[in-house]
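Hi V.,

You were right to ask for the full record rather than a summary. Here it is.
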Amino acid sequence: MLKNPDRDTVTELTQLPNIGQAMANDLRFVGVNHPKDLIGKDPFQLYAVLCRKTNRKHDPCVLDVFLAAVDFMEGGKAAPWWAFTAERKRQLSIS
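Predicted structure:
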């Protein structure tokens, strides 16, 4: 079930939609320690930093989760991560 928290009062990354403990750990690894840290972040850059710091290419769905988390914290509706797959593909095809 998709979480539907209040973005103004969340204090833990795991309170965000689509974010479990493993994804929260990935976010912390790239410097995101609080949900509000996501505001203004570039999900593509967060993904690139994660891949660089871990020296491996992560599954593209990780990028979809980053897109969903940033979108939510910037005012979007809570949506499953796969709702951002088309956006990822579109963005990557024009870059």
